[in-house]
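Dear Dr. V.,

Thank you for agreeing to look over these. As mentioned in my earlier message, I'm a first-year student in the group and I'm still getting used to reading structure tokens, so any feedback on how I've presented them would be very welcome. I ran two proteins. I've put each sequence directly above its structure. The first is here:
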Amino acid sequence: MTSVFGQVSYTVQDELGITAPSRVPFTSLDTTTISELGDMATTVGGELDLVTSGKITGVRVELYFPVGSGWKSSPTAGSRVEQTGLVNFFNATTKYRFGIDFPALADSLISGGKILIDSGALRNLCNLLIAGVSDDNTTFCNTAQQALTSIADALVSFRKHRAVTDRRTKVVE
């Protein structure tokens, strides 16, 4: 058995409605179930509730895994996270679309300013998100927990990340 690193985060709200996070890192065995992680988060949250005068309004458990060994070892030259592929999906319950951003969209997936969605790597990724991962019974959904059923549309968008870029860029005069 190996350990998995994670973090349980609580959102605490004061009487003015202002929220702040309280984060607690942890390690757990890789055999720990989701139910057991939920129990742990509830136990810690109960103790946190006794020491804060604010109200706990949310809890989230995140797990961190190593990057896949077959993935890129470095970014492609010219890649920019601001160039984003936004793919909107339908669900079977409502008329509302749900968008998922893919930062640093590869130039090879864009033609005439539009995303090439009909075939290739992006279509394979979208098909996986629609079908889910059967090995572990995962269904991908919108924030209302409604399963994604088909692609609605896709577009190239630009999400600003300049504050980070400005801090990392050194101007030589």
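The second protein is here, in the same arrangement:
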Amino acid sequence: MERTNKDNDILKWKKEGGGSLRAKVNGRIKIIKPGEVFEAKLWEIPESMRDVIVPVDTRSKAAVEAAADPESIPPGPPAVKNEYFLKHRGGSWYNVLDVNEKVMNEKALKKPAAVELIESLTA
């Protein structure tokens, strides 16, 4: 029995040229090697890479040609808003954390310096 693709948005692409490319495909970071055929949605392939990554089958080519109209491309994932928080470290020292709880400062900061860092990151 042959497997079929249930998601009609997924198209087949081929990486041409030399060198490998890191790209987010189907929600994961993937290393795409020269000559490799892979599946990805149309909006996952940036316009700037269309000279190196080309559609393989006729359905993919038709979808790329239809996408020449910018209104016909389905919207990509929503943009994530960057938010930063203060976390008390002890004494009078603070860390600046992002939404994923990654520490944004190298050393512990005093509160005014931490607030200033948050303001510079959100600006």
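From my reading of the second output: The chain has two domains: 10-72, 84-122. The longest strand covers residues 84-90. Does that match how you would interpret it?

Kind regards,
E.
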